[in-house]
Specification:
The chain is α+β, with helices and mostly antiparallel strands. 31% of the residues lie in helices and 30% in strands. Helix 2 crosses helix 5.
């Protein structure tokens, strides 16, 4: 039996910098669920006394940038989703907000003048509330958490620079990149495009456990460097579905298109809400994460998407109660590619980026910025898990069937990160 429930891989791929000397050649845990975070439990377990008060105060100061980063990243995530939903009204959408924001925060280390301000503003960071040093420290701490060997569900994240053999990257930039973002750097011969592509693809394949084996189709021979930021997530449902109950059912893509899709099903206690706009279900993972599934009511998809923000989730949360549910959820494996140059320019990060702080050369700018992500949902069944049974009441269950386009958002409490967000418009594509 398969043990995978939901896995996701995302990378910010090819922030490619062309050589312009040769002729113009990118939360609050209560927003999703009410599991206690590790920080909350640690805080609650502190003993009283002056020594512990000082320790708690120190911990509070240290964690402040991380909490602020979580708030800013939440706003960035929702803003980006709404923009992508507008630009792609009928397609599957999947992206990793934490991967994009971490990559562009990293990129800001080398940004100068107006572009530096654009990146900060585009990521929804408020420099009147948090210093640049603090937000880099916040992202640094988040990167550490993404690579915690004891993380549950397992998370891995990182970044790498592939640098042209013909150019020299400023040592100050490399030092900050390594210190704050654990970034590796590799000398690359972009003139040999096939060799460069294989080098980058091999690195990505190794660090994402072969989930994205060939992310790059080609490499620009005039590239100065390629920046890759990746995140790998593999989780398991706290209460897995049983494969024997998975049956093929109809999924209504739109008024004119219906496809047959395997639907997982189980009866259990879930936190759910029924509102005038949507049905909302929180499905927890083993460990520190939760998936928020949002099924807009008939004819309400666009409205729900354009109102998908922190405030909406807080409103839904007021109606969320733990209740007995007959849950029907389609299995799917979707991927998506986001043109970040095009999309982020609408969020304030313009095309002509001054990134001369990376090479010391004037007028270095982004030639291409693409984000690729993949997300899969499966039963998450283990042989031993089939013997476990959830204690449920005798109440009549509410049936919830995700048989038309819906929104999914995966949140990790420990790193306070929105790992993945997407719209599943057609589980077969």
């Amino acid at each position: 039996m398969r043990v995978l429930l939901l896995e996701g891989v995302a990378l910010l791929i090819t922030l490619v910098f062309a050589d312009h000397h040769k002729g113009h050649r990118k939360q609050d845990k209560d927003d999703y669920d009410d599991k206690d975070s590790h920080d909350h439990r640690d805080h609650h377990n502190h003993k009283k006394g002056e020594h512990h008060d000082k320790k708690r105060h120190h911990h509070h100061n240290k964690s402040l940038p991380r909490h602020k980063i979580a708030d800013y990243n939440s706003k960035f995530s929702f803003d980006l989703f709404r923009q992508l939903a507008l630009d792609h009204p009928s397609e599957n959408i999947v992206f990793s907000p934490v991967s994009i924001s971490m990559a562009f925060a990293f990129l800001s280390l080398g940004a100068k003048a107006q572009n530096h301000s654009q990146i900060i503003k585009g990521l929804r960071l408020n420099t009147s509330e948090i210093s640049e040093q603090d937000f880099h420290e916040g992202f640094h701490h988040r990167r550490d958490l993404l690579n915690d060997v004891d993380m549950e569900p397992p998370l891995r994240g990182g970044s790498a620079l592939f640098i042209s053999k013909e150019r020299k990257i400023l040592q100050t930039f490399l030092d900050e990149a390594k210190k704050l973002y654990h970034s590796e750097a590799f000398s690359t011969d972009f003139k040999n495009t096939e060799e460069a592509k294989n080098q980058i693809n091999s690195y990505v394949e190794k660090n994402t456990h072969s989930k994205i084996p060939e992310p790059l189709d080609s490499v620009d021979q005039d590239a100065i460097f390629v920046l890759i930021d990746y995140i790998y997530f593999r989780g398991q449902w706290e209460n897995p579905f049983e494969e024997e109950w998975t049956k093929e059912e109809d999924f209504h893509v739109n008024e004119n298109t219906t496809v047959k899709v395997p639907f997982m099903s189980r009866t259990g206690m879930y936190k759910a809400a029924f509102t005038d706009e949507a049905t909302v279900v929180c499905i927890p993972y083993k460990g520190n994460a939760v998936a928020l599934f949002v099924l807009p009511n008939e004819g309400k998809l666009s409205e729900v998407e354009q109102n998908f923000k922190k405030e909406s989730i807080k409103t839904w949360k007021k109606s969320i109660h733990r209740r007995l549910v007959d849950l029907y959820l389609p299995k799917f494996s979707v991927s998506g590619t986001v043109n970040l140059k095009e999309t982020l320019s609408k969020l304030g990060i313009e095309d002509n980026a001054d990134l001369s702080g990376i090479t010391g050369e004037p007028n270095e700018n982004i030639s291409k910025a693409i984000h690729k992500a993949a997300l899969s949902v499966d039963e998450g069944t283990e042989a031993a898990a089939t013997t476990a049974r959830e204690a449920i009441s005798m109440m009549h269950p509410s049936r919830i069937t995700f048989n038309r386009p819906f929104i999914i958002s995966v949140y990790d409490y420990k790193s306070q990160s929105i790992l993945f967000t997407g719209r599943i418009a057609n589980p077969q594509e």
